[in-house]
Every structure is written in structure tokens, then in C-alpha cells.
Amino acid sequence: MSTLSAFSDQLPDGSLREMNFYDSSFFKDPSKRLPTPSEVKALSEDAHTSPHPKPIIFKDSDLFVKFGPCVTTAEAQCLWMIKRVFGDDVPVPEVFGWRVDDEKNHVFIYMELIQGRTLLDRWNELTDLDQNSLRNDLIQIIKALRRLEQDPLQQYIGSISHQKAQDYVFQSYPEAGPFSTVKEFHDWFSSLPQQRLPPSKKFKDPYRDSLPDDEDIKFTHADLHRSNIMVSSSKPARILAIVDWEQAGWYPSYWEYCKARYTCWSEDEWRWEWIDKFLCPRLPELEVFVEYILSIGSV
């Protein structure tokens, strides 16, 4: 097993407003510099109107800039860690640095441009050979990721930097951790549907006992959707990178499966024929997960 303990003390300081990873491939040319937030925003059509502005691409530098009010330095820390722990076993974009805009406190993450298409875009043109190749890639990637372990003496549920859980289903709940145990997380998660009820209206939760408090804690992408899987145009198709790690962190080991199943159309081939091939099926937990998520209105 790989442990994060060797990297915890080395994680880039997420509180810094500017970070350059000078050992990255971008800075092999000493004359190159990352564009400023102002330069990035000047190329954006929705920087001032959307909470999730469209990323800006600098093709001449193979540079992809993700930015906005919902972007966090935790995602950059995550990309940095994964590249160093796994190398090519868990393919992710190389991260070059970040900036925090002084004007609105928005985060800008500068990373490698992945020259490929999403699995969602290529879905209807995949051959049987492509599908088998991509399934095998996913199996190996998840197997590698699941080998990552926390320090047994410092276990928790939350972001990579020991902050609150970044999953979008909790975006309306600023008190989302970190939690020191799975039980503590489950007690909080199961309380959310009744959180705003007066004491006289609260009732015995019929689902809480179905949440397994003895669950292992695993590092989790938390959004394994086809739009976040970049694939090649080669024959057979191969996975180039898993992207969009903004929700990633330490969660109970069933969380990856539940999020992957929940975030796709119920009749989708991806849901019924693919996910169970590369993630361990957790159907009882999925049933409870869906009940809670629907109860709190997260979609």
C-alpha cells in the first residue's frame, strides 16, 4: 500500500495566493511565465456571469486554466500529489501552479492541456475493442488509486488538505467536516434531512443503521462521470487522463460507487453495464445514499 503520510508534510501550502511548480515541464523553458488572472479573464466570455466560467486554453503553451469562485487550491494540491504518488498509473493533468485573484479571491489553476476528447463525446463511436481497452484502463486506474492509504494515526474524512469535504452534494453545508471517524461523518450526513426541523418534528431515521460505520476510508475522485475521462483517438482507445478533481478527498469506500451511479441517467448503458465493471458494486449503500441526497435536495 502507498501511504499519503510521506506526502502530507510536502503538500504545497494551499493558503498561498501564488504558487509556481518550477520542477514541472512548463518551466523547462526559463523564459516562460504563467498568464496573470487578468490576462485569463480578458479572454473569457463568462468570467463575470457564471459561477463556473469556461476554462481558458492557451494552445501555443499547451496550457489549460481552470478558474472561478468554485475552484479551490485543494484541487491543485490533489493533482500535485497524485502525479507524485502514482506517476502514470493514475493519469492526471500535470499542474503548473495557481493564483488567487486579488480582486474577487477567485482561484486560477494552471495545468497541462490534455489533447483528447471526453469519453462522453466519443461514447457512440466506440467499437468493442475500444470498450474493452477503456474498461481495462479504468480497472487498473481504480486499483492503483485504492492502494492509497491514510496514516492509521491520522485518519479523517475531508479534503486532501484536512479541510471540509468538497463534494458538491454538501455545497450548501459549510460545516461539512473534516470528520475524525466514519461514524462521525455518518451521524452528520444522516442528520441533514432533518437539520432544519424543530425538535418536536424530528423522527427516528429509518436509514441510519444501514450506513456502515466500520467502512474503510479511501481516496475518492467523487465524480467519475464520462465527461471527466479523457480518451485518445487511437485504436484501440486509451484513457489519457482523469480530470476535474475538485470534489476529491477521503470518503467511505462506498462513496465513489454511489456518486458514479447517482450522477448519470438512470437508463444509461454507462450506469448499468460499465460502472460495476471497474468499481465494486455497493447497492445497499447506494439505496441509502440516494434517499439522503434526494431528501436534502442535492442534484
From TrEMBL:
Which residues belong to any copy of the Aminoglycoside phosphotransferase domain?
88-266
Q: Which domain of life is it from?
A: Eukaryota
* InterPro entries membership: AGP_Transferase, Aminoglycoside_PTrfase, Kinase-like_dom_sf
- Give the protein name, as stated in the record: Aminoglycoside phosphotransferase domain-containing protein
